[in-house]
Design a protein that fits this description.
With 242 residues, the chain is of the alpha/beta class. The chain is 49% helix and 10% strand. It has a single domain, classed as Rossmann fold (3-Layer(aba) Sandwich), CATH 3.40.50.
Length: 242
C-alpha cells in the first residue's frame, strides 16, 4: 500500500501542496503520524462549524500552555478543494461524490471522449480518500463532515462526535438559515441527511449507525458551551491532549 510523508515543520497548507505535487508525479513517500484528531459529523440543521472553530482555538491554547505549541486546525470544504487540486479539476467536477451520486457507465464513456483531463469515478474517490487520510494522519485536526469518522483506523488517537436533534427542530433551523418554506426545508433536510449518510457508508463499507461515534449530542438540548467542555474533558480523559 502506498504511504505518504507529511513534513510537520511547515504550515499544513504548504505541506498539503507539496504532497499533492508529489502524488501527481507518482512519487512515493512515507507518512508520519503526529497527533490526535477529532471528527464532527452532523445531521443537517445541526450547526458544526462554530463548534469546530471554537474547539480549534481552545485546543491550540491548551497545547501552547502545555508546552507542546501545536496549532489545531479544522477542515471542511478544503478537503474538496485540495482533492480537486490533486486531480487538476474544478471542485464542481467532484462535488457529486459528497452528494450520494455516482457516475454512470455512459457518463464515464462520454467524459473520457470529451476531454483529455477526464478522471474516472474510481480515481476521484480514491484521491478524496487519500486526501482525508493525509489530513487524519497529520494529527491536531478537526474534520467537520466529509466522512471523517470513517478514518479512525488510520489514526486511533481520535474522538468522533455526532450532532443531531429532533427533525422538527432541524427543519426550523433549515427554514431560517436557508430561507425556505417549512415543506421545502423538510424535503431539503431529508435529501442532505441521505447524502451525508451515504458518504459515511461508502467510506466505511457498510450500513452505519450512531454506534460508530464515541459521543452523540442533541443540539436542541445541549448548549454549544456544554458540547465544547465535554469534548475537551473527553480528550483529556482519553489522554489525547494534556
Amino acid at each position: 500500500m502506498t504511504t505518504y510523508k507529511l513534513h510537520t515543520d511547515r504550515t499544513q497548507r504548504n505541506a498539503f501542496e507539496k504532497y499533492f505535487s508529489e502524488i501527481l508525479r507518482e512519487d512515493k513517500v512515507e507518512v508520519v503520524e503526529t497527533g490526535p484528531y477529532v471528527s464532527i459529523s452532523r445531521d443537517f440543521g445541526c450547526m458544526a462549524n462554530p463548534i469546530a472553530i471554537r474547539l480549534s482555538r481552545e485546543l491550540t491554547r491548551l497545547s501552547k500552555e502545555s508546552g507542546k505549541g501545536k496549532e489545531w486546525k479544522w477542515f471542511n470544504k478544503v478537503i474538496l478543494e485540495e482533492s480537486a487540486k490533486a486531480l487538476d479539476l474544478s471542485p464542481s467536477k467532484i462535488k457529486y461524490v459528497f452528494r450520494a451520486q455516482k457516475k454512470s457507465m455512459i457518463d464515464e464513456i462520454v467524459g473520457a471522449m470529451a476531454t483529455k483531463y477526464y478522471k474516472s469515478d474510481k480515481k476521484i474517490r480514491r484521491t478524496i480518500i487519500d486526501v482525508i487520510r493525509l489530513i487524519v494522519k497529520t494529527g491536531y485536526v478537526i474534520i467537520v463532515g466529509r466522512g471523517g469518522v470513517a478514518f479512525a483506523n488510520d489514526n486511533p488517537q481520535s474522538l468522533h462526535i455526532k450532532l443531531t436533534a429532533p427533525v422538527e427542530w432541524r427543519v426550523e433551523m433549515v427554514r431560517k438559515n436557508y430561507h425556505k418554506t417549512e415543506e421545502d426545508a423538510y424535503k431539503y433536510l431529508l435529501k442532505v441527511d441521505k447524502e451525508r449518510k451515504y458518504l459515511i457508508d461508502s467510506f466505511m463499507g457498510f450500513d452505519t449507525y450512531h454506534s460508530i461515534f464515541d459521543v452523540v449530542f442533541n443540539r436542541k438540548t445541549v448548549t454549544e458551551d456544554e458540547i465544547l467542555n465535554t469534548i475537551i474533558s473527553l480528550l483529556k480523559m482519553k489522554n489525547l491532549i494534556i
